[in-house]
Structure formats: C-alpha cells, structure tokens
Amino acid sequence: MNPLATVGRATLTVCDSAGGIFLFALQALGRGLRGPFYPRQILRQMIDIGYYSLPVVGLTAIFTGMVLALQSYTGFSRFEAQSAIPTIVVLSMTRELGPVLAGLMVAGRVGASMAAEIGTMRVTEQIDALSTLSTDPFRYLVFPRVVAGLLMLPLLVLVADVIGVMGGWLMSVFKLGFGPIEYVNRTFEFLETQDVLSGLVKAGVFGFIVALMGCFQGYVSRGGAQGVGAATTKAVVSASILILTANYMVTELFFSR
Amino acid sequence: MKRSLPDMQSPKIEVRGLVKSFGPKKVLQELDLDVPRGQSLVVIGGSGTGKSVLIKCILGLVRPDAGSIKVDGEEVVGASRSTMERLRAKFGMLFQGAALFDSLPVWENVAFGLLAARKLPRGEARARAIDVLGRVGLPAEVADLFPAELSGGMQKRVGLARAIATEPEIIFFDEPTTGLDPIMADVINELIRRCVRDLGATALSITHDMASVRKIADRVAMLYAGKIVWEGPVAEIDHSGNAFVEQFINGRAEGPIRVAQAANG
Ligand SMILES: Nc1ncnc2c1ncn2[C@@H]1O[C@H](COP(=O)(O)OP(=O)(O)OP(=O)(O)O)[C@@H](O)[C@H]1O
Ligand SMILES: [Mg+2]
Fold first, then answer.
1. Where are the transmembrane segments (chain A) (predicted)?
2. For chain B, which domains are there?
3. Beta strands in chain B (DSSP E)
4. Most buried of A48, A65, B186, B194, CB within 10 angstroms?
C-alpha cells in the first residue's frame, strides 16, 4: 500500500520485461514491414486512435491552454511580464504539454483497449486461430496498431496545439484583457519550427509506445478475464512510464545543444 | 534442405517420442502416433489427458519439450517460421472453443482463409462463405451477424465452416459435436466424413462422443497418461482386448483408468 513501492514495482516490471518488449518491437517492425499488409486493419486503427481520441485530447488541450494563461498571468503580473503569456502558452503546448498530455490520455484510452482486445484474443485462442489461417498475428494485429499510433498521434498533437493556443486566447481575451489580434501576433512572434517539430517527434514516439505496450501486454497475457484485466493495467502503466522517460530523452536530444 | 518426397504409403502425420510438460505437470510422455494419408483418425481419451495439446503441437502452436512431428515428411518441431507458414497452409483447425474472431461478422470469419491465403475478391469470398455455412446447416441470414450473437452450437458450426472453407489437406477437429443436438451432431459427422471421402482430406479429430467416433473414424487411438495406449481400426473398437478402451467406450467408473489421477495428473 506504500505509494512509492507501487511506483517502484511498476518500474521494475518495465525493466524486467524490457528485453521482451524490445524483441517484440523488432518482430513487429521486421515482419510487418515485409508485408503482406492489411490496409483495412491499418485504416480501422487510424480511425480508432486518431478520430475517436479527438474529444478527449481536445478537451484536455483547451483546459490546459486556459489554465496555462491564467496561471502565468497570476504569476507574471507580479513583475509586469504579462506580455509573455502568449509565448509561454504556445511554447508549453507545442514543446511539452501537447504531446505529453495527449500521449497519456491516449495511453489510457487506446492502450488499454488494445491490451484488452488482444488479450481477449489470446485467451480465447483467436491468436492461435489466426496462425492456423496463414495469417501472422504480428502483421495482422500488431503492425497496423503500431503504425496507426506512430502516424496518428502527431496529427492529434497538432490539433491539440491549436486548441491549446485557442484556450489560452479565450482566457486572455475574455478575462485578462488582451487584444485578440495582439495575442495571435505575439503567439507567433517567438515561435520556431523546431518547437512544433520537436513536439511532433515526441508525439510519434509516444504513439509508437502506446500501441506497442498495448499490443505487447495483450499478446503475452495469460489466464482468462483476470489476466486480461492485469494486461490492461500493465499496458497503461508501462506506456505512461515509458512516455515520461522518452519525453525527457527527446527533449534532451532537441534542446541540449 | 533435403525434403523426402512423400510417397503414398508414408503417413501424412508422423509423431515420435513427443514430450510436453507444463511446469511440473507432465502432459505428453513419449507419445507416438501415425495419421494415415486420406483417412480419418479419432483420438479419444479422458478430459485433461492432453488431446488438445497434442493437436496444438502438430499445428506448431505449442512448442514440445522433445520429440519429432513430421507432416508429409517435413519436420514441424523447431521448423523455421517460413516452413511453418508453408505447412500451415495445408491445415484447417476447428478449435474446441470455436475461437471465432469476434470483431468480424460470421461470413468474414468463414472466408478468412480465402481472403488471407487465396486472395479471393471479397464478393466471391462472401458467396463461398455462405455456401459453406449452408453445408454446416446455417442459413444465409447468419452471415452478417457477429459471433457474439450466435448460440454456442452455432459458433461451433461457424468454426467448422471456417476450418473447411479453404478445403485444406489436413483438418483437425477438436470436439466437433460438443454442444450440438443429436440431429445436428449427425449432420456434422456426415460432413466430416464427406470431407475425407470427397475431398481426400486427412482428418484428425478429438471427441468424447462414441456415436461420433463410430461415424467419423477410420481408425481410433486412445490417449492415456501421456501415451497412445491403443490404436486400431474403428471396427475393432468393441473387441479391442484393451482394458482402457473397454472402460472408456462403456463409460464405466471402475477399471484401469483412475479418474482422480487423470484429473490431477
Ligand atoms: N497453456 C497451458 N498452460 C498450462 N497448462 C496447460 C496449458 N494447456 C494445457 N494445459 C494442461 O494440459 C493438460 C491437457 O490439456 P488439454 O487441453 O490437452 O486436455 P484435453 O485432453 O483436450 O481435455 P478435454 O477433453 O477436457 O478438452 C491439462 O491438464 C491442462 O491443465
Ligand atoms: Mg481439449
């Protein structure tokens, strides 16, 4: 019941299965890239990850943008630096909060459902059935999900960036007394391509992680409903830990120079 | 790689010294079995003796601890993935629990092999699927339902339709008539017979239902304590002179088969 022990145990679990996860990822890409491809499956997953995650990601983004503006205002007005708010909002959203929050939300929504679906397929022998029908589960189940995660999360994050900035704009214009045009101009004044780009790269990495962990935990699940339940939890927890770790590493890569 | 040409005499499937344990639990112990080409072999045996595990070893879904399994003279145990993929194209499998893809409608389940391996156009595959559904006694209306909307017996028949849709050379039936009413069970028995007689398929079935054994088997093998304890033509099953077989087919609690041991390993 010790919260630190829980975090520690989750971290250990990830490290423990790191080798397995790595091999799983290699298999998924190595076999998946050589085809045959299943465009229907890829499309289905892209819609599921991209389209159906829009509400939850959009909601997260708009409130985050609003809170960012409000928080920076209450802090920055103490030394007359309110004019930095648009920059703060857009940089925080594109570089950090957009990808991380979208990644975590999608991990909860999509990663869990992938683990549950593939885990159920495992325990009801549907994965075995696939193999006997001359269909490689890695190509049919795992690869489409991983590709969809990799492609759709950057798109989601792009949308989240826009909505987040809009949240900041709403707050600033209607509550904090900014001019609507002035705010937009200031938003783009210090924004660099690299800021957006690094966020999109992060998003791609996170999307890959979410789908990979969902598939992996489902694929290795054992023993009925309980095993599938455990796989779902593990998928979300391990994806979240990996997202936070990868976030640091990508940030280091982009901005340490 | 050398591949011996399968002659007509050699068995279609040849299992030698097959060993499989799950942890401390020994399931198969030095099992030997031949499935003759173009014939129907039925494996009988108590619940939990490893009949399903045996089939899964042949399909390459479970990795045996030791032994050899040859299909058309080609080794399955430790085979590369490409060899395995090629061999699996010869197989059709009805799983004990049907194992239907619950995200796909019934017709796509049945047509799955046709779409995946044969690359048939979807319209044509659908027509073929409805045709095969008819052969297992299911009306065309079920084609667009999802597996969760079917009864257990109907799911079983869809699983059977999926197994035979590609007209495979070797078909595995894991308890094909369990959960069916006696009339439907007879229809299915007849269908399995026809697969062997008309399509020249080799069939390996598992069943507890002695009526079904008599109907579909050319040969019968009895699995007990990890080994085949008796194997012979179906005609001899009533005077096998084997105490295990006699106890099993007459369904007696007394005899050499100790139920408590069979259940606990
Ligand atoms: N994946 C597995 N992990 C652990 N044990 C297993 C596994 N699969 C099967 N077993 C064990 O192997 C034994 C044989 O199982 P199997 O499913 O082959 O039985 P069976 O002969 O098909 O029985 P039934 O007639 O009831 O279907 C069982 O005791 C089961 O507990
Ligand atoms: Mg069984």
1. 6-29, 49-70, 146-178, 199-220, 235-255
2. 13-90+168-264 (3.40.50.300), 99-167 (no CATH)
3. 13-22, 25-35, 40-44, 66-71, 74-75, 91-94, 170-174, 202-206, 219-224, 227-233
4. A65
